[in-house]
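note to self — DONT lose this again. spent like an hour looking for the file last time. sequence + predicted structure for the chain T wanted, 196 res
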Amino acid sequence: MKSLLQNQEENVRRSLPMFVKFCAVQSLLGLDGFLFELPGEEFGASPEDLGNGVRRLLKVLSDADPAGVHCMDKSYVSKRGWCFEFDGCTFFVTTFAPCYPDTHSRFNFNSENSFVLLQPEESFLRHNVGADTPHTDWENPRTVRDQIRAAYRRAGRPYSIRDTLFYPPAHDIVKPLGGDPEQDVVAWWDHRGDSN
């Protein structure tokens, strides 16, 4: 009998033709994201469980990258300068899971499943989100980025905003439950000790 992780990888492989099409047309059609669902508690009981599913999902995609970049095989996934890339598109990757409380920016609104959103970085340009910055104008948010941050804060789910722009993007793909995001990093890319 196949393990849940093997089934997950097969499901991701079945999604590959649609993901390739998404990458080909997202700019032309103004598409903003491709969503993968990780079903069940096995992928959402903890940030570490979520990280295991995220790593496997991104690895399957990376292994099938038509451009041949294979970004998940890079030695610097956990370093500045890496980002997820597939078929020439770079992506902002964010995750949502049942393990996050309703006060967390990764709260999934009580779904029993977890989600991985791959958002083309050019989508931020299309929507004029503005340059990333560690500063937010909370009182009078003018940029789309500030408006998003302020909305999350008003909803009781504030983003953890770093005091620098120079950090590894992989550190923000799977967030810790609390604490300092710079100290309590969920090392989802590290497969040591993984038996499957």
